[in-house]
């Protein structure tokens, strides 16, 4: 056998190239998939926290599994837009909270953190200052609900940090977030593991390629040493690495074509999903009214101005006479306040620009959520009390409504209406918390009529 055939070798190269290309493609898809999920999440921060939690592991075995499951839902419904277990989001990472603080501190803190800060409690003041005096909202949760949130957090600690133990150590402190921070936190646990796997794969492939190139060179040397070369062997010897071959290969063209089509498809789907979305919308209002000043610093109750929010479908915008309750006395000389006077003199309402606006095809009722469901305004509207100018915090998509209905346990305590339903639910499906969707909160006709 005097002619060494190199064809199998070049096939191997092609196979290698294909593998690398496929990995690249799946990487691109993995990156693409992440934002698609956040589109329908409760809120950007919330999905970020929810993804690793669900991706990592189910709640701890043994222990009080029901309490932990309830804590999971409560956390996602109330805390996840500001907290994650292992990452700093708006508030601190909650990992280790049970060791850091006694329950006798955590419970009153969650119920009313600003009261704790005002009381001068040393730790409360310190952490409040550390997070640039951002107020955590108050929650009307029971002691037991808060305990189950802490139980859930504790059950997630070991698990979520498991895969990145060697990369990151356990607790991540505020300053330690990597440069990729924000986006990266989304898939911290599982994501890092995947990244390590991919890097290892790429390294193995590079080693393989180098080895093959060396083998090919040795073979060429062997060929060169011979006299009795036939035409094919000579051709192989004189062969230079030729890019046009790769470029002309149908396989490569197909792959490039597929990748291109996928990218275009992904972009157009994202674009289409964004149509009509107004998350982040922050128009300039006719009067420089600041929620930070009124609801934050001066702690005026939301319902003092939005008087109907606990009683009716819509939350009203206060009329000028509510402003005058105070501004007939306060800051009367300010040019902004003069605008209120002018509106009253002209008997014309102030033309506030509407921010939140669901399409008419969807039915949303404030009192059902605030009064009956006991949900804080901030869960849906974000930290209004820190906003100088209000913006739309949540996406207000159908996925956002539905996600929350799937995850939020119904506030059934002291509500006789639910007694029988809870009993029936516990009998048939006791392990799963009684959520809004167990009560039909994901049926089309509840929101569309
Ligand atoms: C709107 C954002 C926001 C929400 C929602 C929120 N928090 Fe916080 N939380 C913060 C901030 C900010 C801090 C830091 C202290 C401060 O600035 O008041 C904090 C601090 C804490 C701390 C103290 C942490 C430590 O390291 O000592 C605990 C415990 C806590 N939050 C629990 C909760 C729980 C439980 C929920 C849900 C029921 C929740 N938080 C919901 C923003 C939030
Ligand atoms: C002193 C009166 C006052 C208080 C207190 C107040 N608001 Fe407002 N709110 C207004 C006015 C006026 C507007 C319309 C102008 C604007 O958007 O800033 C408004 C607008 C809003 C909007 C946007 C409405 C839209 O156009 O979609 C939301 C959401 C909101 N407030 C929530 C809250 C929450 C939550 C609180 C309590 C933390 C609160 N407000 C406290 C007066 C008040
Ligand atoms: C419960 C009392 C109260 C109500 C009601 C109230 N405000 Fe105020 N407002 C205040 C206080 C207190 C200040 C801060 C005054 C200061 O900084 O000295 C203020 C400040 C302001 C300022 C800043 C003025 C400046 O030039 O610094 C504007 C603008 C304003 N309010 C608009 C409104 C509007 C519009 C409404 C009605 C939707 C309203 N306020 C309702 C208490 C109130
Ligand atoms: C479950 C989520 C949720 C909660 C909790 C919530 N809101 Fe809203 N809010 C919305 C949605 C959705 C809209 C848009 C409604 C629409 O366009 O019909 C809205 C609109 C508003 C508006 C504009 C006027 C209107 O009714 O359309 C104001 C003001 C407002 N909310 C204030 C509040 C206040 C104050 C609280 C707390 C007492 C609160 N919201 C709690 C979801 C929520
Ligand atoms: C933060 C969580 C949350 C979000 C976001 C949310 N909901 Fe709800 N929703 C609830 C809870 C909790 C209840 C149950 C209140 C109760 O009856 O105890 C509820 C109840 C309802 C009901 C009554 C269901 C029934 O069984 O009678 C309707 C309708 C509804 N929501 C519509 C919406 C729409 C529309 C949106 C989005 C614009 C939305 N909700 C967003 C938590 C949420
Ligand atoms: C919890 C409340 C809720 C439930 C349950 C719900 N939807 Fe929706 N749906 C909404 C909201 C809110 C919107 C508007 C979203 C937006 O503007 O992006 C919407 C939008 C839609 C749209 C898009 C309309 C358009 O113009 O883009 C369709 C179609 C739709 N819903 C169908 C359904 C069907 C079918 C079901 C039952 C399987 C269902 N919905 C259940 C809240 C709900």
Keywords:
mainly alpha, Cytochrome Bc1 Complex, Chain D, domain 2, 449 residues, binds heme C
Structure write-up:
With 449 residues, the chain is an all-alpha fold. Among the domains are: 41-186, Cytochrome c-like domain (Cytochrome Bc1 Complex, Chain D, domain 2, Orthogonal Bundle), CATH 1.10.760.10; 410-449, no CATH class. It is built from 23 helices and no strands. It has helices at 7-39, 44-56, 65-79, 97-100, 103-111, 113-118, 122-130, 143-161, 165-168, 181-185, 188-224, 231-238, 243-248, 250-274, 291-297, 302-305, 320-327, 335-345, 366-372, 377-381, 398-407, 419-429, 444-447. Helix 1 packs antiparallel against helix 11, helix 2 (44-56) crosses helix 11 and helix 3 crosses helix 8. One heme C (HEC) is lined by residues 285, 289, 291, 294-295, 300, 302, 304-306, 317-318, 352, 354-356, 377, 381, 384-385, 390.
Please outline the helices and strands.
Elements (H helix, E strand, L loop, with lengths): L6 H33 L4 H13 L8 H15 L17 H4 L2 H9 L1 H6 L3 H9 L12 H19 L3 H4 L12 H5 L2 H37 L6 H8 L4 H6 L1 H25 L16 H7 L4 H4 L14 H8 L7 H11 L20 H7 L4 H5 L16 H10 L11 H11 L14 H4 L2
Helix pairs in contact: 1-11, 1-14, 2-11, 3-8, 17-18
The structure holds heme C (6 copies).
The site of one heme C has 21 residues, from helix 15, helix 16 and helix 20.
Find the count of extended strands (DSSP E, 2+ residues). Answer: 0
What is the mean predicted local confidence, pLDDT?
78
Q: Could you give me the name of the CATH homologous superfamily of the domain at 41-186?
A: Cytochrome c-like domain
Distance between the termini: 81 Å
SSE-based structural type: mainly alpha
* Cα radius of gyration in angstroms: 30 Å
Helix content: 55-70%
- How would you sum up the major sheet? none
Q: What is the H-and-E element order? A: HHHHHHHHHHHHHHHHHHHHHHH
Number of helices: 23
Bulk shape: elongated
Output the CATH class name of the domain at 41-186.
Mainly Alpha
């Amino acid at each position: 056998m005097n002619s060494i055939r190199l064809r199998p070798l070049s096939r191997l190269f092609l196979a290698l190239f294909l593998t690398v290309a496929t990995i690249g493609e799946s990487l691109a898809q993995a990156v693409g998939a992440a934002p698609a999920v956040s589109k329908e999440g409760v809120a950007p921060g919330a999905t970020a926290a929810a993804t690793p939690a669900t991706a990592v592991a189910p709640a701890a075995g043994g222990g009080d599994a029901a309490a932990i499951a309830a804590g999971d839902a409560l956390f996602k419904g109330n805390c996840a837009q500001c907290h994650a277990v292992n990452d700093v989001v708006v508030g601190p990472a909650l990992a280790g909270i049970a060791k850091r603080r006694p329950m006798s501190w955590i419970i009153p803190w969650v119920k009313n953190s600003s009261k704790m800060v005002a009381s001068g409690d040393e730790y409360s003041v310190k952490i409040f200052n550390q997070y640039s005096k951002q107020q955590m909202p108050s929650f009307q949760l029971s002691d037991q609900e808060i305990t189950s949130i802490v139980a859930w957090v504790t059950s997630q600690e070991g698990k979520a940090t498991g895969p990145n133990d060697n990369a990151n150590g356990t607790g991540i402190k505020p300053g330690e977030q990597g440069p990729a921070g924000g986006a990266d936190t989304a898939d911290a646990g599982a994501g890092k593991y995947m990244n390590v796997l991919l890097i290892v794969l790429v390294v193995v492939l590079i080693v393989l390629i180098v080895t093959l190139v060396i083998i090919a060179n040795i073979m060429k040397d062997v060929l060169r040493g011979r006299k009795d070369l036939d035409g094919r062997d000579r051709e192989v010897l004189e062969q230079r690495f030729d890019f046009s071959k790769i470029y002309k290969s149908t396989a490569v063209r197909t792959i490039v074509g597929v990748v291109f089509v996928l990218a275009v498809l992904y972009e157009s789907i994202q674009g289409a999903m964004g149509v009509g979305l107004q998350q982040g919308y922050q128009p300039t209002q006719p009067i420089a009214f600041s929620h930070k000043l009124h609801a934050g610093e001066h702690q005026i109750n939301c319902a003092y101005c939005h008087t109907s929010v606990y009683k009716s479908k819509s939350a009203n915008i206060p009329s000028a006479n509510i402003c005058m309750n105070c501004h007939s006395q306060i800051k009367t000389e300010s040019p902004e306040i003069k605008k209120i006077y002018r509106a009253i003199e002209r008997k014309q309402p102030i033309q506030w620009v509407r921010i939140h606006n669901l399409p008419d095809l969807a039915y949303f009722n404030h009192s059902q959520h605030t009064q009956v469901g006991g949900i804080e305004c901030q869960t849906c509207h974000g930290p209004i009390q820190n906003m100088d100018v209000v913006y739309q915090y949540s996406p207000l998509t159908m996925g956002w409504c539905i996600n929350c209905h799937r995850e939020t346990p119904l506030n059934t305590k002291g509500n006789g209406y639910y007694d029988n339903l809870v009993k029936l639910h516990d009998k048939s499906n006791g392990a799963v918390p009684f959520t809004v969707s167990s009560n039909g909160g994901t049926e089309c006709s509840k929101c569309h009529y």
